[in-house]
Structures are given as structure tokens and as C-alpha cells.
Automatic annotation (TrEMBL):
Protein name: Lipase
Family listed: Belongs to the AB hydrolase superfamily. Lipase family.
InterPro entries xrefs: AB_hydrolase_fold, AB_hydrolase_lipase, Lipase_euk
Keywords: Hydrolase, Lipid degradation, Lipid metabolism, Signal
Superkingdom of origin organism: Eukaryota
N-terminal signal peptide: 1-20
PANTHER family: LYSOSOMAL ACID LIPASE-RELATED
One Pfam family this sequence matches: Abhydro_lipase
Domain (Partial AB-hydrolase lipase) ranges: 30-96
């Protein structure tokens, strides 16, 4: 047997052994996850003005309601749409299961729940371009706000017949909201209110890191010259990495979460150890332009549009265009969207009279950027109180 064949067999065996440690959630699609948890699910497609095709998923009824009545009719229900963060996807809001995930808790509370996917993740495509085309990746969160979110909102309103829906965003999902309202303020009239979890708007604390990678090292330009179009890892290789390095169950031997916590803030107390490989393997691709645009915000200290590139004109987005109530939830140990930067945003929203509420996530001092999605007790700490808050905002601001 040749050495190449032997190596191939060894690698295949390693892949099998490592990936066998991953939970079934690592391989399931979002609709499969929803259905396997006992909830009804619908799949819809949205085509944007510039040709991107986005899959969005709907949970029209709660698990208990569907089983008891046999009906999944969502007509007349209050609707909530959720937008994921960078490297995320719609699965972020269901992966932790019915007890913890916001989508399930909302559905069980009687809401019509919609899960968005923003261009670039694996649930999106283009009418004319493939993912191997450089032009496919020529976007940042600017296009998420200008094209994706408006198209998704319009699709939901068209299907439901409602005049308004409720917007929930995490991290880049909040950036998407603010860029949308800056460019298309008429969408204030299509939303009841907005909940911003770990809002990514001001990033002054990351200026040194952005300067090193984008200016001194010029990493993205180097990668582009070598033919790379995006920051992505093949799903099978990501599963191999997760199965190999993300299975430790204690801090002193954990490599995987040490890397993650260096970025988002350490919180081993709420770390869901058995889910870590699955969470890592669920990461989706991102465009280089998304990273560069966030870098421009960090370097300039301004929530600015992309304009003429990383070193081009600084043109602030119009946060004053926001006219609907905004609730901000922040992590007290969030190193990515750091508290002082969230407070800067809160002050700006408060000055225009739209800040409804400002709250620390779960009241826990170690609560970090990802705890809003993946903390082992996020249902009890954040999501159940949040669903009550959403109900209060609906009662207060939606009279139909």
C-alpha cells in the first residue's frame, strides 16, 4: 500500500473518530433542528434587489399549541424577526434547544417567529453568481441593511398581512438594523420596536487590533492576492477541527474556548461544555469586506458607511433616523462590543428619545458577547424575561 493511500486512510479514520464526537445538531439544517424539536417549520425564499437569494425560516406555532390543536395557523399572530451576527446564521436562535433558545420560547409564547439569514452564510446564494466568484463576496453589512433586511421584512409583511413586525438582532444583526434605518428610514413605519443584543456600532476599543491587521500587516490584501474571496472553512474541515480540539470539558485543558474567549470575553461558568464542538462547527462564512467595514469603524471611531473603501471618506450613518423604541441588552464582560461603547450608543439614542431600556444581560458580571446566544442558562437569564418585555412593548406601541 502506498504512503499516499495510507495517509488518506489515516485521515479518514481520524475524521470519523473526531466527528463522531459531535452531536447530531452539528450536521442538521435549521429546518431539521426545528422539526426534530417538535415545532412546525416553513421555508421561504427572499430575492433582494441586487440578486441575492436568502432562505428564511418560520416557526408559526409553539410546540404545545401545535400538538394540542393540530393547527399551525399563524394568522393574526404578532410576528418577530431575528437577525444573526457575524459568522452566524438563523440556527443561532434554535441551537440551544426549546428550554433556552429565543425562537422556541417566543413560539411557545404565541408569537409568529421568523429567522433571517443574511447574504454570505450557507443558507444564501445569488441568481447569477456562485460562491467561488469574487463578485459574490463584494458586500459588507452596508448591503445587509440596504437590501437584505428590507427585503426580508417586506416578505414577512406580505405573507402575514401585518402592518408591522418586531425586530430582534444580535451583534451584526443590530448593525444591520442601524444601517437599514440610516439608508431607508421608511422602515421605521414597518417595525413595532427593536431589541439590540450586544449592539456592534461603536468599536473604538478595537482600534489597535484593526490597525495591526488591516494596516501594518495588511492581512486581507495578502489573502486576496492569494486568491481567497472570503473568510470561510469547509464544513467538513470545520467539523474535523471542532471534533479534534473542542471536546475538552474543563478550562485547564480547553484550547478551543480559550481562543473564543480571548475575543468575546471569558465566561466558563455559563459555558455549555457538551455543546462547544457543535457551536464551533456551526460557524458560517463571512466576506472580507464585512471585516474591513467593522475595521473602518474601529479605526475612525465613527459608525461610518463604506464609501470609498477602508481609507476612504468617513460618512457617518444617520442613527438619528431611528424613530422606534430601542431596547439595548449588553454583556458586562463583553470584550467585542465593550460596555463603554454600548453606553455611547445608548446616550445617542437617549438624546433623540428612542431609548426604551438599557439592561445588562442576565445581570451576570461575566456575561460575554456569545452568552446571548449560547449560554447554558440563557433561557432563564435572558430570553424568558425578554419575551415578557417584547410583549410589553407590543402592548404599548402596537394598537392593531
Amino acid at each position: 500500500m502506498g504512503s499516499i493511500q495510507l495517509c488518506a486512510i489515516v485521515l479518514c479514520a481520524l475524521f470519523y473518530v473526531c466527528c463522531a464526537q459531535l452531536r447530531r445538531e452539528a450536521y442538521a439544517t435549521v429546518p431539521q433542528l426545528i422539526a426534530s424539536s417538535g415545532y412546525p417549520v416553513e421555508k421561504h425564499r427572499v430575492t433582494t434587489e441586487d440578486g441575492y437569494v436568502l432562505q428564511i425560516f418560520r416557526i408559526p406555532a409553539g410546540r404545545r399549541s401545535a400538538r394540542r390543536t393540530g393547527s399551525t395557523n399563524a394568522k393574526g399572530k404578532r410576528a418577530v424577526v431575528m437577525f444573526h451576527g457575524l459568522f452566524g446564521n438563523s440556527g443561532n436562535f434554535v441551537l440551544m434547544g426549546p428550554r433556552n433558545s429565543l425562537a422556541y420560547i417566543l413560539a411557545d409564547a404565541g408569537y409568529d417567529v421568523w429567522l433571517a439569514n443574511l447574504r454570505g452564510n450557507l443558507y444564501t446564494a445569488h441568481k447569477n453568481l456562485t460562491r467561488n466568484d469574487a463578485a459574490f463576496w463584494d458586500f459588507s453589512f452596508h448591503e445587509h441593511g440596504k437590501y437584505d433586511a428590507p427585503a426580508i421584512i417586506d416578505k414577512i409583511l406580505n405573507i402575514t398581512g401585518l402592518s408591522k413586525i418586531f425586530y430582534v438582532g444580535h451583534s451584526m444583526g443590530t448593525t444591520t438594523f442601524f444601517t437599514m434605518i440610516s439608508q431607508r428610514p421608511e422602515y421605521n413605519d414597518k417595525l413595532v420596536a427593536f431589541v439590540a443584543m450586544a449592539p456592534a456600532v461603536y468599536l473604538d476599543h478595537l482600534k489597535m487590533i484593526a490597525n495591526f491587521f488591516l494596516k501594518s500587516f495588511d492581512l486581507i490584501s495578502v489573502l486576496r492576492r492569494r486568491g481567497y474571496n472570503s473568510l470561510s472553512i469547509r464544513p467538513d474541515m470545520l467539523a474535523l477541527f471542532a471534533g479534534s480540539f473542542c471536546t475538552a470539558r474543563q478550562p485547564q485543558t480547553d484550547i478551543c474556548m480559550r481562543i473564543v474567549y480571548a475575543i468575546v470575553g471569558e465566561d466558563y461558568d455559563l459555558n455549555p461544555w457538551d455543546m462547544v464542538p457543535t457551536l464551533v462547527s456551526s460557524m458560517h462564512p463571512a466576506s472580507f469586506r464585512q471585516l474591513e467595514h467593522f475595521g473602518k469603524i474601529a479605526l475612525t471611531g465613527t459608525f461610518t458607511s463604506w464609501e470609498n473603501g477602508l481609507w476612504g471618506e468617513v460618512k457617518p450613518y444617520k442613527i438619528e433616523n431611528v424613530k422606534i423604541p430601542v431596547t439595548i441588552l449588553y454583556g458586562m464582560n463583553d470584550q467585542l462590543t465593550e460596555k463603554s461603547q454600548v453606553m455611547r450608543l445608548a446616550d445617542q439614542l437617549n438624546s433623540t428619545g428612542v431609548l426604551e431600556s438599557l439592561q445588562p444581560g442576565g445581570g451576570w458580571p461575566k456575561f460575554n458577547h456569545l452568552d446571548f446566544i449560547f449560554a447554558k442558562d440563557v433561557g432563564k437569564m435572558v430570553n424568558k424575561p425578554l419575551v415578557e418585555h417584547i410583549g410589553e412593548l407590543y402592548n404599548k406601541y402596537y394598537n392593531e
